[in-house]
Design brief:
Blueprint (H helix, E strand, L loop, with lengths): L28 H15 L5 E3 L6 E5 L5 E7 L12 H9 L14 H15 L7 E6 L8 H16 L1 H4 L10 E7 L5 E2 H10 L4 H21 L9 E6 L2 E2 L6 H6 L7 E3 L2 E6 L33 H11 L2 H15 L7 H23 L4 H5 L4 E5 L18 E5 L10
Helix pairs in contact: 3-10, 7-11
Enzyme class: transferase
Catalytic activity: a 1,2-diacyl-sn-glycero-3-phospho-(1D-myo-inositol) + ATP = a 1,2-diacyl-sn-glycero-3-phospho-(1D-myo-inositol 4-phosphate) + ADP + H(+)
Pfam family, one: PI3_PI4_kinase
Length: 416
């Protein structure tokens, strides 16, 4: 293994001009550098480590120093992917085929949903989703079929003994896996942990205000993408309590300090991170057995009307038809990179999202609370049969172009 203090040459099969998904608009040098660090670490034997929680194959990705820098979720190791290393979902699929998956979601698109949620977050300026993009990575710690590992070993053995023959191989190593790569956030804990603490501990006024604002951004994200998997264990909170710099060493020191010297230097702060967005962007609202509610709807914060700050941030965007047009186009550019992309199914997904945006716009104008928002009748915006082209003509929105449909079917078990 090369010394960790040096930067070794990267094998040929690692080289890609664009390590991020080619259909995403814009070049992100910081994210590209993050992927480069991950590739160099893997080349030096610092391999991604499988996360044993959850129902899919996901991995902590590290840099050359062994520090976790991201979470990678391969497409083929998703809950119902063909190479998912977790046996629970395999048993579910085998023993309960009638209850297989979530009927409102496109199967095996979790990695696109993760990246799509990050895209929506960036476009709306919410800043609650750690940056997530679709990338390709290869590591021996990923779950590969035995035949693929055997073939790779044979090719490498031949190449070592007969380099002239080996140079004709298309690939010596394992095939790179496509999946979502999310930046790792440090210092965060499950929301459930902090919500229990906040039930008994009073937050400073400034922190409570920011927490409410961050919470509202989480609500807006989840509502627009219609997240079907938002429990209190898959959104995170980082809370930095106040720290007093001029803390007296003794009672005598305390008496000598003037009142203005008791300044809080380490100001309290709080931040929310919305992770695990792989079960969003449904092509219809839940209408089977489960309603997939938003668990944050039971918190006290959900009973407070949206703040003016949130309205000023979101309303100008979602009321701009050009913005919605561009958002849908960007999502299309992302989703069409998948080999199984279905244009008709994508239109249905966007129909649900567009309906959610219209409901959200009304809720913000009517000064509703988050819990009132999720109780609104779900609608779907459908294009008329005469529609031609892509979303480039969305800015020509008229009542003759789109139709608004109320989804009458509802899940058997539903809280809202």
């Amino acid at each position: 293994m090369a010394s960790p203090m040096t930067t070794p040459a990267i094998p040929a099969y690692y080289h890609r001009k664009k390590p991020v998904w080619p259909f995403e608009r814009g070049y992100d040098p910081a994210f590209t550098e993050l992927i480069r660090q991950a590739e160099i670490a893997i080349d030096n034997g610092i391999f991604p480590e499988r996360i044993y929680q959850g129902s899919s194959g996901s991995y902590f990705v590290k840099n050359l120093q062994g520090k976790i820098i991201g979470v990678f979720k391969p497409k083929d190791e998703e809950p119902y992917g063909r190479l998912n290393p977790k046996w629970t979902k395999w048993m579910h699929k085998l023993c309960c085929p009638c209850c297989f998956g979530r009927s409102c979601l496109v199967p095996n698109q979790g990695y696109l949903s993760e990246s799509g949620a990050s895209l929506v977050d960036r476009k709306l300026g919410l800043k609650v989703v750690p940056k997530t993009k679709v990338v390709e990575l290869v590591s021996t710690t990923f779950n590969y079929p035995r035949i693929a590992r055997g073939t790779s070993q044979v090719k490498n053995a031949i190449n070592n003994k007969f380099p002239k023959i080996g140079k004709h191989f298309n690939r010596l190593g394992l095939r790179p896996k496509v999946g979502s790569f999310q930046e790792f956030v440090e210092g965060f804990k499950d929301a459930d942990y902090w919500l229990r603490r906040f039930d008994t501990e009073q937050l400073p006024v400034s922190v409570e205000k920011k927490f409410q604002s961050q919470f509202e951004r989480l609500v807006i994200l989840d509502y627009i993408i219609r997240n079907t998997d938002r429990g209190n264990d898959n959104w995170l909170i980082k809370y930095d309590p106040p720290v007093i710099l001029n803390q007296p060493r003794s009672n005598a020191d305390q008496e000598m300090l003037a009142p203005n010297e008791w300044e809080v230097v380490g100001k309290p702060d709080i931040t929310i991170a919305a992770i695990d967005n792989g079960l969003a962007f449904p092509f219809k609202h839940p209408d089977a057995w489960r309603g997939y509610p938003y668990h944050w709807a039971w918190t006290p914060m959900a009973k407070v009307p949206f703040s003016q700050e949130t309205k000023d941030l979101v309303l100008p965007r979602i009321e701009d038809l050009n913005f919605v047009d561009e958002l849908i186009d960007d999502l299309r550019n992302l989703f069409k990179g998948d080999k199984g992309f279905d244009s008709h199914m994508f239109e249905r997904q966007m129909g649900v999202m567009h309906g959610q945006i219209l409901n959200l716009r009304k809720a913000l104008h009517d000064n509703l609370t988050p819990i009132q928002l999720v109780q609104m009748t779900p609608i779907i915006i459908k294009r008329c049969s005469g529609w031609a082209g892509t979303t480039s003509n969305f800015r020509a929105f008229t009542e003759n172009t789109f139709t608004e449909n109320v989804q009458s079917d509802s899940p058997f078990f539903s809280w809202f």
